[in-house]
Amino acid sequence: xxxxxxxxxxxxxxxxxxxxxxxxxxxxxxxxxxxxxxxxxxxxxxxxxxxxxxxxxxxxxxxxxxxxxxxxxxxxxxxxxxxxxxxxxxxxxxxxxxxxxxxxxxxxxxxxxxxxxxxxxxxxxxxxxxxxxxxxxxxxxxxxxxxxxxxxxxxxxxxxxxxxxxxxxxxxxxxxxxxxxxxxxxxxxxxxxxxxxxxxxxxxxxxxxxxxxxxxxxxxxxxxxxxxxxxxxxxxxxxxxxxxxxxxxxxxxxxxxxxxxxxxxxxxxxxxxxxxxxxxxxxxxxxxxxxxxxxxxxxxxxxxxxxxxxxxxxxxxxxxxxxxxxxxxxxxxxxxxxxxxxxxxxxxxxxxxxxxxxxxxxxxxxxxxxxxxxxxxx
Length: 378
Prior knowledge:
Blueprint: H1 7-22, H2 36-44, H3 63-75, H4 84-97, H5 100-111, E1 117-120, E2 136-140, E3 143-150, E4 161-167, E5 178-184, E6 190-196, E7 202-215, E8 219-220, H6 226-238, H7 242-245, H8 248-263, H9 269-297, H10 304-328, H11 340-351, H12 361-372
Parallel strand pairs: 1-4
Antiparallel strand pairs: 2-3, 3-7, 4-5, 5-8, 6-7
Helix pairs in contact: 1-3, 3-9, 4-5, 4-6, 6-10, 9-10, 10-11, 10-12
């Protein structure tokens, strides 16, 4: 096996990094990476949806180029929040399962960075068990009437629309009776309330739906068959490289600081070995992510492979932050803006949720056991 990118893929990386370095990246004043104007500049140069087929507005570059694109966007701290979810998850799901009318209406808007999407998945009391969704969508002629609540909705206060998982048949078995809707977040009856995480940041929300009317033509796929779309939709998310790369720059700063400590003869051997182990682990995690992209590039939908990448990446990030905190010691209590200690302390608190968000590690391990190893359900 050859662990190398093709010349064309290397050329794409070089082209993209040249664009990012020459653009004068905007400052992320709010800290949410949400900048529609920059997303539209990306779109004008053909980067939004670049991996999509040409007939849907993309460049036909493929999943590996998409992974390269995500990696470089993060390494250059380029704002991607406005278009990222729509491009990575909503668009591919529409391409595979949407009607011709839905593709004509929504795909150009995503590629042109004219619409942003949040994900309405988790609910209070259901946690990572998305099949336990209780938000109800009751058919009323050519509309659904939606009632219920979603929680931990990232960027729901900033987005234009929401990809919403609802129950359309409350009497069906757990994994049946689920449908997927695209809902305008400005629809009457929707209330969005902020939730603050351990770092004090507001990017989570709880979203309430009270008699929200949604046209039936906003349903993606067959009624009551949404679980199968949702499972594939989540694989697009879990196979992402961002869980590793978004801490890569901080890890490089930690390594540089460790070099300074070592130069003073103050870096213990156990800590030195753990840092080396983390460096190797970072490369292993990248290969797992690119493996899922390769499977997508040959027409497969990675399932347990995506769960492997998700578990590995999130658990690596927690180990990395624990080692970083050990290295700086009591300085981790400092909160002076711009210091390495402050970045580590914030990253350490943020890492707590990584093995929960997007599906817990326990669920991912069950997927690997059942679908990857063929082990029976207990």
